[in-house]
Design a protein that fits this description.
heterodimer; A: about 475 residues; alpha/beta; 6-stranded mixed beta sheet; 19 strands; about 35% helix; globular; B: about 350 residues; mainly alpha; MetI-like fold; 13 helices; about 75% helix
Chain lengths: ~475, ~350
């Protein structure tokens, strides 16, 4: 039975053709992948299927109801209404609310919770329950796991697959991650620039290239951390961490959200004060300087940080060039022609066209913003840079480009990295050694290849199992 | 943890006490710093000399040190004594209580009109951006923001009293020769209805229209603008899109998904608007010779009469705190996130 037949679909917004001549079908019990980079028209196709945007060409026909699960479930839920009432809104009565919650793996007594009281994964389960409550024949999942931890991602996708099998539902999985689609879908429609490139079977995709583990050149110790801890009342966010970073080395730190890795990063960058422990950077105990005075310390220029969301961390009123120039003015006392030359050099280093000098952050793409953030951190010529989820906000193609750039910069400039990520796959691309963090403690550490091949700690094994096979394939 | 509404309200109530204490001390000290001497105002006769002034200062307690005067004042306020007005000769508390209903009637009428009109206008504009309603909303918002209240008041008097003759003489709350209905609530509209006095009701209503409209226009501008902006943002939100994708009934989507969430910034603005209105009150009451607390305070300032000014500020601080408490509680009811205790 054909649930949806899309033929010659075209959607325009003003003069922009978001979707152009896209055709495909979805049958009952089938999972179709809709894969493409951001802007390829996959979400607009979904909205057209739901009747939320008006196509200006082509037809959509099919039997049965359709429902959609949006990305970023927390934002997609009404923030001022309990999830139970939102479910009751769809069901028409509160009778089956508990039942629906149980079916998506939530306890019925969570019905009185507001979305802000639930984790991202739980919100996505609620969103799935809302969609199921309409009793759909076809479920459209639009990037349902973006922004979730790898382990949570796997359980959410399992839930969708199980429910689809149970109910004989057809599913459209929209994602930018080709490997993920290859692992989950029966057929994959590849989109590019609003057009359908082709429809492939998962088996047609080339096998995963072998990752190239890099030899870590043993340099002298740059950063040594002993017994570092941060307690918030009874909560031990970071609970006695020891680590060493050698010059020019890339060390990975992996763990689920809430494991304390960002708190650790903020202490190392001397943005917050540790409760206990020692941070020795280039032979100096930098934990001795209180965080509020660290900005004036002599080593500030040599220890820099690239933060998670480049777009949010740029001053919206400063142009790209001004953002990169600010640390040079303050930390390196550069001005005039010397400042100008150094900014231009940094733009070249991160492969940003000089034509973008005078753009404001909102005029830059996500990848360009990330490059400005990296150039700004590199500006004072640091020996050590903390990278806190530098690619979390980017889609797969851009992630690869940024990771390659970071790797090149490390080799060229001899700068050492601490790369923090919840995604082991990202760590594997860049780092020689990796540490696994759980509940404020380091539970495993070692060379990346070894940890991957023979994880010693069950938590590490879980993280590895959560990576979709063939993830290195990128559209 | 999310707090229950009563616990949340109790915490907000406690937070008001320091604000009131601060207002009392602040205005007391500021009044003493002003280069004006109430004794010099009172002693104006030909026989008045430095001796008389000194004697009066001693009688009023103005010869003592400022901390000592403050301590006496705080003690008096706590026992319910706000002092005596030197111009009316009456206790300040009695004066204020007698005039408060007039001000309240005016402010509440203006606030109600502004609330109803502002939210309706902003909602209509948000649902049809770029339409005639939207342009009208922008025009009124700009006019209300840029024209001072007393200018609007004078324009209204000119048009509706001088030119058209539709409204009664803009002086006071009733026609000059009319006997006011027996005071029960102090609100003339309510009292005249209770007394069954139709003529007094019409007269009171007629006198209320222009000053209330003046104040309402002033309050309506920010309200309409905030309502429009908040609703436009909410209508474009992900959760309204979700509600539409789930094909929920339109009424449910508009009321519980759109308006409920848009109400959060609107309610916050209400508190601000009320404080504007308390300030605007003074001038509007002067323009319309309205016998309320605003004009009372203005006369007290002009004659350097300390006690009424202090009493007025205390009363305004109290009503401001009460309104903000109400806004906080409403906010907590509307948005559970406001009740989180870290």
């Amino acid at each position: 039975m054909t649930l949806a037949e899309v033929s010659g679909l075209g959607v325009s917004f003003g003069r922009i053709r978001a979707v152009d001549d896209v055709s495909f079908t979805v049958a009952a019990g089938e999972m179709l992948g809709l894969v493409g980079a951001s802007g390829s028209g996959k979400s607009v196709t979904a909205l057209a299927l739901m009747g939320l945007v008006k196509p200006d060409r082509g037809t959509i026909t099919g039997q049965g109801r359709r429902a959609i699960v949006f990305q970023n479930a927390r934002r997609a839920l009404n923030p001022t209404r309990t999830i139970g009432r939102q479910l009751a809104d769809v069901l028409g009565s509160p009778v089956r609310v508990g039942d629906m919650l149980r079916r998506v793996g939530l306890s019925p007594d969570r019905a009185d919770a507001y979305p802000f009281e639930l984790s991202g994964g739980m919100c996505q389960r609620v969103m799935i329950a809302l969609a199921l409550a309409t009793d759909p024949a076809l479920l459209i999942a639009d990037e349902p796991t973006t922004g979730l931890d790898t382990t949570v991602q796997a359980t959410i996708l399992d839930l969708i697959a199980d429910l689809a099998r149970e109910r004989g539902m057809g599913t459209i999985l929209i994602t930018h991650d080709l490997a993920l689609a290859a692992q989950r879908c029966d057929r994959i429609a590849l989109l590019e620039g609003g057009r359908l490139v082709r429809i492939v079977l998962p088996g047609d995709l080339p096998p995963r290239p072998v990752a190239s583990p890099q030899a870590a050149a043993p340099g002298s110790t740059l950063l040594r951390v002993d017994g570092l801890a941060k307690h918030y009342g009874k909560l031990r966010a970071v609970d006695g961490v020891d680590l060493v970073v050698r010059e020019g080395e890339a060390l990975g730190l992996v763990g689920e959200s809430g494991c304390g890795k960002s708190t650790l990063a903020a202490m190392l960058a001397r943005l917050i004060d540790p409760t206990a422990g020692r941070i020795e950077f280039a032979g100096e105990d930098i934990a001795a300087v209180p965080a509020r005075r660290a900005a004036a310390a002599a080593w500030r220029g040599r220890l820099q940080m690239v933060v998670q969301d480049a777009g949010d961390s740029l001053d919206p009123r400063l142009t790209a060039a001004e953002a990169v120039a600010a640390p040079l003015r303050r930390l390196c006392r550069l001005s005039g022609a010397a400042l100008h030359a150094r900014v231009a050099e940094l733009f070249d280093r991160v492969h940003l066209p000089r034509a973008l000098h005078d753009r404001l952050p909102y005029q830059l793409s996500g990848g360009q913003q990330a490059r400005v953030g990296i150039a700004r951190a590199l500006a004072p010529g640091p020996g050590f840079v903390i990278l806190d989820e530098p690619t979390a906000a980017l889609d797969a193609a851009l992630q690869d480009a940024i990771m390659r750039l970071l790797d090149d910069l490390r080799r060229d400039l001899g700068v050492a990295y601490l790369l923090i990520s919840h995604d082991l796959d990202v760590i594997r691309q860049l780092c020689g050694r990796v540490m696994v963090m759980q509940a404020g403690r380091i539970v495993e550490a070692g060379p990346v290849a070894e940890v991957f091949a023979r994880p010693a700690h069950p938590h590490t094994a879980g993280l590895i199992a959560a990576i979709p096979q063939g993830r290195a394939l990128r559209p | 943890m999310r707090q229950s509404i009563p616990a949340f309200a109790a915490r907000r109530l406690l937070a008001i006490l320091p604000v009131l204490a601060g207002a009392v001390v602040f205005v007391f000290v500021v009044m003493r710093l002003l280069p004006a001497d109430p004794a010099a105002f009172l002693v104006t006769g030909p026989q008045g000399g430095p001796e008389q002034i000194a004697a009066l200062r001693a009688r009023l307690g103005l010869d003592r040190s400022i901390p000592e005067q403050l301590a006496r004042y705080v003690r008096d306020v706590l026992s319910g004594d706000l002092g005596r007005s030197l111009t009316t000769g009456e206790p300040v508390l009695a004066d204020l209580l007698q005039r408060l209903p007039a001000s309240l009637e005016l402010t509440i009428a203006a606030f109600a009109v502004a609330l109803a009109a502002g939210i309706a206008l902003g909602t209509a504009a948000a649902f049809r951006p770029g339409s005639a309603v939207d342009h009208a909303c922008r025009f009124i918002a700009t006019a209300g923001n840029s024209l001072p209240g007393f200018v609007v008041g004078l324009c209204l008097i000119y048009v509706f009293y001088v030119r058209l003759g539709w409204s009664p003489e803009p002086v006071g709350r009733l026609d000059g020769l009319m006997v006011p209905p027996p005071a029960v609530t102090g609100f003339l509209l309510a009292d005249s209805l209770l007394a069954g006095d139709g003529a007094a009701f019409r007269s009171a209503l007629g006198h209320l229209v222009l000053p209330a409209a003046t104040m309402a226009l002033f309050a309506l501008a920010p309200l309409a603008r905030i309502t429009r902006a908040a609703l436009i943002e909410v209508l474009a939100s992900d959760y309204v899109r979700t509600a539409r994708a789930l094909q929920l009934p339109t009424r449910l989507v508009v009321v519980h998904y759109a308006l409920h969430n848009a109400a959060v910034p609107i309610v916050t603005t209400l508190g601000l608007i009320f404080s504007y209105m308390l300030g605007a009150n003074v001038l509007v009451e002067k323009v319309f010779a309205w016998p309320g607390i605003g004009s009372y305070a203005l006369e007290a300032v002009l004659s350097a009469d300390y006690a009424p000014i202090q009493g007025y500020v205390l009363l305004v601080a109290l009503s401001f705190a009460a309104v903000n408490l109400l806004v906080d509680i409403l906010y907590g009811l509307l948005d559970p996130r406001a009740r989180i205790r870290p």
